[in-house]
Amino acid sequence: MDILSAVSGTSSLVVLLLAVFGAAAVEMVEALTVVVAVGVTSGWRCALQGAGAAVAVLVALVGLGGIPLVRYAPINGLRLGVGALLLLLGLSWLRKAILRAGGLLPLHDEDAVYAATVWALSAPDATKRATYTEGLGVAFKGVFLEGIEVALIVISLGASQNRLGVAAAAAGAAALLVAAAGLVVARQLSEVPENLLKLVVGVMLTSFGTFWIGEGAGAHWPASDGCLPMLVVVFAVATSILVTVMRRRVTSVAGGRRLEQEAGA
Amino acid sequence: MTVLGRALHKVAVGVWRFVVGDAPEFVLAVVVLVGFALAVHDARPAEWFGLPVLVVAVLVASVLREPRRQ
Hints:
Order of helices and strands of chain A: HHHHHHHH
Shape of chain A: flat
Number of domains of chain A: 1
Number of helices of chain A: 8
Largest sheet of chain A: none
Number of helices of chain B: 3
Number of strands of chain A: 0
Distance between the termini of chain B: 35 Å
Radius of gyration of chain B: 17 Å
Structural class of chain A: mainly alpha
Order of helices and strands of chain B: HHH
Largest interface: A-B, 38 and 33 residues
Oligomer: heterodimer
Number of strands of chain B: 0
Number of domains of chain B: 1
């Protein structure tokens, strides 16, 4: 029985680490694009100051939001609320990632985001002071907006499992890794398979959301926390089937249109 | 509308867009799923299989609806 509970605890910790690390990595790749664009056009000082200020605000939010939840919120209500929030986030991530993988939505284009940010900051009439302030604001906004979802995931997953420190550390490690990779290659990371990461994180968040809604409602999952990997497998299989179906649909629609055009010509 | 009213409206719209994104049907679905979980929490097979099956059904319906939306 002890071995079973140890395995259950380990599996839920592994899924938590993967979910938080993956979510933070995806969002920080997007944030890095904006920071690099600001650094190249407005100077690295304002880019790093803006990014640093945003990270400080996010850390404060995690502390202010997470610690009271862990200490004072009733555990079942917390798990129900957190489960609902995680399921909402997870389903949204999964849906978008499936549609992108299936070819129905365009993939997130880091090069386009980079070019748009550089263009917006390179207005010919901008004074040096305005450029500095503007760059600071754009870097702050880029990191803060991308990071707020990660902060929410860290608070939800960390508070519901009483592992706020572990969740925050996983997010911090991902942010450092992405920042280090950005420094090494000295440009935005457009080669990162972002959509694949989004699919994986979407599956994890959906699994956690389903699990916590059940736990919060008083359900007893088979094998307790050990049920989480089973839920991950169920949602991963459903996701891969959906991606295949969407790809086939897009291919058959494109083939049909080509035939129509050929018949018209 | 006052400055405060406009600011609050902007914040509310931002929060709604952030939480709901471009699939508002998920909000209703999650509310229904929470209600379902509360209703069947002591009915063994339903609590084990019901939630994951319903979540997959919501996802499938939302994804398959997208081509018609476009």
